[in-house]
Amino acid sequence: MSEKLKVGVLGATGMVGQRYITLLANHPWFEVVLVAASPRSAGKTYEQAVAGRWKMDEPIPTAVKDLQVWDVNQVEKIASQVDFVFSAVSMSKDQIRKIEEDYAKTETPVVSNNSAHRWTPDVPMIVPEINPDHSEVIKYQRERLGTKRGFIAVKPNCSIQSYAPALTAWKKFEPTQVIATTYQAISGAGKTFQDAPEILNNVIPFISGEEEKSEKEPMKIWGRIDPQQKAIIPATTPVITSQCLRVAVLYGHTAAAFVNFKQKPTKEELIAALEDYSGVPQSLKLPSAPKQFIQYLTADDRPQVSHDVNFEHGMGISIGRLRPDKIFDWKFVGLSHNTVRGAAGGAILCAELLKAQGYITAK
């Protein structure tokens, strides 16, 4: 590629926005040329806007420090400066739905970390290794929006990354019922330990809206495009029930899952299916794609956040403790990095896929 695509990050001052900024530093295809946030940050340099609230371990990339922060509501002006945008804005769902559509209608593709459009029927919700073909629904979305180039694509909730990839790898064994309990890091709420004293020496057994997302979003990912309805029709199996707890971990969502199968696979067959599973990002060698999407760990005490959350630079999934269950067929533990694979990194990989498929191009 001779020239990188020009990228804007909406909501650039929040935790996910900061993760976008660090992951996009020195990206081979994309260059951050514009950062936008709420009106209170507008006019400041990016370094000034995040002063005292920079949450990443890495320093602010030099190329972004002095960029002036734009008001995210300046849709037309921002759109004129970029080829596409990543969205991590903090607004009400109605406001997010409107502003992301406003950007799309300026013929600017939007790749969103937000949940507001995840259930819009013609908006693809993509995990690139699982459902890359769902991008085909974009043609119907463009018909609805009246655009030729603009559209919205979203990534799913961070918590499902720790178990949905395993269930996808096991699709040929026909999983029918799943219980998934997730133990979710505080960064999933945009917080660090300094921001969240309530989590110290504590487990909080409620995360608003999380259980519904954990049960429903995999169904859309496993769904199909219906040309008649011009929409993605969610799958109906397996049936998932979940509980979601916030725990005193900074990064990493862990899941304890139980699965029934229509077929009766052996442990060896299940492990082989995990380790052999790969997708379009691996075959295309997309810049952010992990070489190995899923690893299986044989030690009884793995996966662990402290050892495994950064597998494949945070873009890989770790599975372990696969064993028979007295009520269900099998049970296992999964782990994923919630702000890398589960948030900004997953969205960047989605954008790389959409570029490779020809949906994101230079203006």
UniProtKB/TrEMBL annotation:
Gene Ontology molecular function terms on file: aspartate-semialdehyde dehydrogenase activity; NAD binding; NADP binding; protein dimerization activity
Any single GO BP term: methionine biosynthetic process
Protein name, UniProt field: Aspartate-semialdehyde dehydrogenase
Family label: Belongs to the aspartate-semialdehyde dehydrogenase family.
Active site (UniProt): C158 (acyl-thioester intermediate), H253 (proton acceptor)
Alphabetized InterPro entries for the sequence: ASADH-related, Asp_semi-ald_DH_pep-lack, NAD(P)-bd_dom_sf, Semialdehyde_DH_NAD-bd, Semialdhyde_DH_dimer_dom
SUPFAM superfamilies for this protein: Glyceraldehyde-3-phosphate dehydrogenase-like, C-terminal domain, NAD(P)-binding Rossmann-fold domains
NCBIfam families in alphabetical order: asd_EA, PRK08664.1
CDD domains documented for this protein: ASADH_C_arch_fung_like, ScASADH_like_N
Keywords of this entry: NADP, Oxidoreductase
One Pfam family cited in the UniProt record for this chain: Semialdhyde_dhC
